[in-house]
Each structure stands twice: as structure tokens, then as C-alpha cells.
Amino acid sequence: MANNSAMIGLGILTGNSGIYNSFKMPKIETRAQRIAKAAFITKETTPPWKEKASTVPVSAQVSQIKSMYSIIDKPSGLTAGLSDDVKTVFAAYKATDRLRLLADAAAKPGVTDIERQSLQKAFAKGLTDLKKYLASAPSDKVDLAYGRVARQVQTVGVATSSSQSMGAIVGEQVANSSTAALSGLTGKEKFTITLKDYGVSDTVTIDLSTVTQPPTLSGVAKAANDAIATLSKKNADGSVVLDGDGKPVPRYSTRFSLQYTPPPSTKDSNIKSAQEETGRYALQIQRGGTESVSIDQVGGDDAIMVAAGYSESSFDSSIGSDGKPKSYVSTTSAIATAITRFDRADGDLARKTLSTLTAVDRIATEKAQFKQDSDTSKTKSKADPTVMAGLSVASMVTDGEGNSYIVGTTAGDLGANRSDGQDDMVLTKVSSEGKMLWQRTLGTAGSAKGAAVSLAPDGGIVVAATVTGGIDSTTSDGDMLVTRFDAMGDSQFETLIKSSGTDVANALAVAADGTIAVGGRSGAKGDAFVVTLSAAGKEQARRTIGTTGSGTVRALAFGANGSLVALTNEAGHAKLHSMKAQAIATDQASLDLGTADARSLAVASDGTIAVVGATSAAITGDKVNQTAGGRDGFLTRVASDLTGATTTYLATSGDDQIDSVRFMNGDFYVGGRTNGNLDGTRTGMLDAFVARIDSGTGAIGMTRQFGRKDGSYEPVIVSAAKGGSTALSALGLYRGTLTPTDSTKLEAQTDLRPGDSFKIKVNGGYAKTITIEENDTLNTLTDKVRKATGSRYATVSMSYADKGRGLRIAAQPGQEIELIAGATGRDALSKLGLEARRISAPATASKGAPLVTPGGSFGLDLSDSLSLASRSDAKIALARMEQAVSYSQSAYRSLYWDDAKAARADPPKNKGGGDAAAVARYNAQTASYQAALDRLGAGSSTSFGF
Question: What is the value of pTM for the model shown?
């Protein structure tokens, strides 16, 4: 080993600086380090960040970036000799650095709105370009991801047959003790329980007057089990099946019990009552096999279900330029939909708030999360970053079991239904107590807006919507769509009603024989437009009503005599048209009600037609009461032959309007809005109300007004729920079928549609296409993916996830799986909550293999939610882009040997000794000597003589 000190001394004594200038202290390596180093064979090159800095002004660079066709550089002769890994890393670095410049420009003060929009447009496109590039960029040793590094991915959670059959049906928690008296029960109620299995159906009755008073959960559970136990299995001849002991064999194995939920663990000394410390009890139904369980109350009062979107307003208390406080600023659309029930419809209309339907703005939520993550304050508890998307309601209908079907529109996420940012129709099924049972969207490649919903005679749910863009293989410029679902939410047919121009659907009705009528506005000439379909969805006839360019159908209904009644708006006039359902080309009768904003209609059992809306002028015909001036809500009763009209006004000194109407048991029930005082004092900026009006006299019965402080209601939609007012909520249950009725098909559970697809590559091989088929479930999709990857290369399974199970794909050690997006609008990956990307897992190291290898997996940790829309957003984006630039540099450095890798390749086993420790000490010493040589070499070349 060279004597380093002697070499330095010799240079000084001889005055020959060349001795130490030319001398470089050698490093020694262990065997493990030499073996590891041998794998680092990537050709040395100068990375972009070490090249001479650009002299072009930053403002000019930003302008150049905004004008680029793609933020990703095209391959050129300068990169021809580089490895795939280096090409990919360099392209990613340049892209992230360009995006950093855009973010930096947007984060500066004084950026105009026009310039910010321009920067945001370029930034969003740049993110898209980079994401698409990295999803399939060439690679060998380096895997560079747009988001975070992952060895596995998992889809959104969906219901499966196993997840639905597992466990018991558990009601709401309603008691602090199993023997506590249940609030809301009189002890005289009677409930029926219906059990079904393999075509056999039986109903038993629970009479609470026969159980120990007051009723308790344990008493109700025992009464239910005793009633079910009276049902015995029967032989083909009707005789009772006996077991080995000669006892009757029970027909059903469904049993009621109690579920106890202990109180949350807490050290809070403010818990004051023993009840609060004992937890809560709920009814639990353990069904047997495929048995179905339904429940209802005998003699329940009628009820009115109400669905209404609402928006909230914020109050700006600052002083404006006029010296006065600024006014309320309201949101532009409904942020949620409130579900309410009014019990005792023929009495006091007692209001019961049930639930709220919401949608999530995924992008805005991620932005809010970014802001929270960037908050450096030491606040322990932070607000929920979830941002709601608008969710409006257009129509609602209630079935005989008390389930309500609500159709509306949202651009947000609904559980496993992942939005693409465009409006989509949403159909929601809720129980009699407002519990959400399932939701469905269309999932088309374009936009869809829900318009109306009606029940078919056999219980099917028929929906009308307006669709624009792609729907499967058809392109729509704006057409009416009719689709039918069964009670489980499976789509049974879709009929697209094509015509030229942008059509709009507004109305829907289904006749007793299943005939469907849909109406709206034709885009060709701007006329009112009606189309009839068969029960199977086949078009039968179409008709244009009224004068050119000024009409639309607002509502449809089938009259008591089977005729089709259409409510139209023609040049500002509200008109009724009656036509034969099977011959709609001409009117049987018509009636002009005058200038009015008519919105909905209903038909009484005697054929009387009710038309509702808002008007600033008197309606044609007689009147029950007076108007109040301004705009008033109205209900006009018209005979079935469209002769005569009598109007009832719901009016205050403010602005009043009626949005919907339903008939039930001799009365019309209306839902509307007012900024006046119909019943008591106004609560919000625009309150909702429900009122009962006698179908024979037009007299106003009970009226209930309700509002939200500093809030406004959107259209108030009512539906009739016969027998809907029950005491089942006291048991924590709801009317109708309690066993799961949600379809497990992927088309029902998500936005997926048959024909959607994605591709899978294994280790860069042939891309295999996975196509969604009509009856696919998570089970069948899992099988398809497993077959495409092979168990040798990936583990494909169904794992527990929110709302059920999710498909999980995990790369096996040493393998790479690439997920490739399908066509725009038909991409199954995005609808499953996945991104186009690669996933990989490092190979399992053999005994004695190097501890350090070139390359690895790196993530830029970017998101589509990053934005330059505001200065604060731009600051967050800038920090992320600076981080991404650093990550791309780390990916590059992983390809080349350095001291850090040498240290990891053969780490000292202990502080005291070993080969690696000795080498480390030697290299540290030589580094010190080398530094001394460098300092000497940097000084004067003066010679010393003696």
C-alpha cells in the first residue's frame, strides 16, 4: 500500500507540485462492492440539469411551453444512443421542469385572469401528456410512475354475491337496553313478515298487543321467531314433514335476534348516564340460505315522500363600494338532495327528516386535501376535505313496498360510480325511511341528464333522460333516452330516440298495459315532441305538437279512460292535449289555460286532471280563491274531457311556485317553493312547502312550510306513499324487502357498460384486451384478468373493500404488469377507479446476490387534481413539481454507481471491524489525504531550495 504521507512530503521537499498534483488517492473495494458495481453498465452521459443554463428569459420559455404540441420531447438523433431508461428519465425531467416553470409563473402575484387561464390550460394538458407517456414509456431497469410507486392496484369496492349473503341484516340502533321500552310504539301495532324461498311464500303477523307491555326489542324478536316457527315444511301432498323425533320440520330458518354495539372507548368524564355507557341494541335478522324477508305494518297511514335539492348561501358582511353590506352569495346548483316524509297525509302532515343524498367532487376533494397537506400549522384536528358535487332531482315515484325511486343529475362520484366530470343521470332507490338501497348511472361517453321516472305495471322502473355524445356505438347530438330497470337495478333495455337537432326529454308516463310515453322538446324545429314505445321499448309512434319553434312537453299522464294527456308550453301558454294512446297523431280535445309556467300534472281516480305551476296572470276559467299579486303557485282542476277549469292559488305577498303534484285517496298533494309565509315564518332564503288540496272542491287543506337557514330549495318533488306512515322506524327497520336487492353486475354497480375495455401487458409482451360483457360481475372480471396475466406473473384476487369487494392485481416478484386504458369514453380502467400504469415487484434476491442493483421503481407523486386556477393552487402545484423534478433526478442517479451505493453494497457489520469496516476506514483516510493534495495543488507553484 502506498505511503500517502511520504508522497505529499516528497512533493513539498522537492518543490515539485506535479508529484501531488498528478497523484490521485486510490480507493479500494470489497468483493461484494465489485460484484455489485459490475451491474452498473449504463453509459455515462450529461443529464439536462447539468447542461449550460438557458439564456432565454423565463417569460419567453413559458410562452414556448404554452405553444408546444406536447410537453414530451420527440425522439431525436441526440437521444438515439441512450438507453431506454435514460430516455424516459430525461423526457420526464424535461416535462416536469417545464410544468414547474408554468406553476412558478402562475404562483407570482399580479397574474391576470386571462393569463392564468392560459397557464392552467397548458398545465392541465402537460399533466395529461406526461401521464399518458409514463403509462407505457420504454424502460428496462427504471420504472417511473406518474403517481406513486405501487406493486399492486385495487379497484373500487362493489357488491358481490358473497358479500351480500355474508352476515346478518342489521337494523338501526334504537335502544340502550334489550328490555327497554321502545319509543314510538303504542303497543297496539300489527306487523306482517313475509318469507319467500324457491317459489314458496308465507306471511305471519306479529300483534304487539299480545306481547309483554311496553314492547321491547327482545319481546319483538321473540314474537317474530314464535310466529315464524309456526310455519312447517310440507310434503307434496300437503302433509307436514316430520323429523326423526316426529316433530315438524321448520319451513324457514330465518331468525330474529339482537345485536349489541358497545360504546366507543373513551376517557371522557362527561359521560353522565349509565345508558350512554351501556352501548346500543338493534334488531338482527339472520336469514337462512336464499330466504327473502319482507316486513310491513298493518293499517299504516298514508304519507307523502319529498325529494328536493338545496343550496346554501354564504353571507359576505364586508362593506361594498356603495357603503352598504354586501348581499348573500348563493351556490349555483343544488349541493345535495334532502329526503323528507310527511306522515298522516290526510291529517296534520307531520314532517320527518329522513336522509340526504350527496355526490363527491373527486378533483375538488383532492385539491382540498393538497391544501391541508401543505398547511404547516400545528392544528391537530382539521376539517373533512371532502367537497360535494351538485346533485339535483327531477322526478320521483314510490312503489307499493314504500321504496322511492328518485331520478336526477350529478357530475360527481356516487360510491363506485366514478364520474368523468360530465353530467350523468342518476337513479336512486331509497327505503321508506330514506335509506339508500342502490344507485345507478348511465355511464355514457357523453353527458346525460335525468328527466323523469315512472313505474311499470309489473314493478319495473322506467326512466327518461337526455343524452349527448357517445352511447355505446352510437353518437348523439342530444336525444331522448328511455331505459328500464328492474327492482334490483339491472338495466333491461335502453331505447335511444334519434332525431335531428338537440332534443330534450322532460316527461314520462307508463300506461296500465305497459305502453310508455316520453315527451320533451324537439331540436329540429323547437316543437313539443311526444313518442310512444311498447312495454319492451320499441318505438311505436311520434308526434310534433303546436307551432314551430316555441313548444315543449312539460308533463305526461295516462287518463282514467286510457287516453294520453300532454301538458305543453307553447309560446308561453300552458296547454292540455288529450289523445288516444295508440293513435297520438291527432287530439281528442285540447285546452288553453293562458299564459302560465305550468310544470306538472296528475290524474285523480275520477279522471279529474290537476295542472300545477306558477303564474303572474289569472288562469283561464273559474277560481276557488284570489291571487296575491306577483307570481303565485296554482293548481287548476280540469275535467277528463278537458272542459272547464277551476284554479286554486297558493299565494303570499312574495314569490310562490308549485313544482309537482300527486293524487292519493281523494286529494291532490303539491310540492313547491316560496319566499313568503304560507305556513308560519319563512326560515331560509327560499323555503319549500307541501300542501293538500281537495280534488273535488279545490279547497286548501293542511300546508307545511320548511326551509334551511341561509339556504334555498330547488324544485320540490312529491310522491304518494300509500300506507307509508308506519312505526317500523321504532324497530330500526323499514317497509318492504329487507334482504339485499342490489344487483351484483358490474354494469349496475359501476359506470361500466358492455363493450368498455382495457388492456394488460405482462413484461412488455403482447397486449391482451379485457372487455366488459353484459352479465359480468366482479367474479367473472377477476377470472378474465387472472387468465390474461397468468398466476406466474401476477396474483389476481378479490379483496375486502369499502361497500364489498375489489379486484386486486399484484405483480409477482421480478414481474411487471402494464395496465393500458381503453378508448376515450369506453375506458374500463377509469370506471373501475384504476389508472393506466405499470406495477412491478423487485425480484427475490438469491443468497449471496448483490444488495444494490441499478434502477428501481420511482413515483413522481403527481395528480390530475393539481391546478393553477388560483395563486394558492399554483403554489401547491409548484411545490409538487419541484418535488417531481427531484424524483426524476433520483431515478437517473439510480442507474450509476456512487459512494452511497458502495456503502449499501457491503455495509459494515459492526463498528469494530470486518472487511467492509476496514475498507470504509481506509477510503475515509484516503479521501482526507486527497483533499489535502487538492488544497496544495490549488496553491502557488513556488519551489523550495536548500
Answer: 0.88
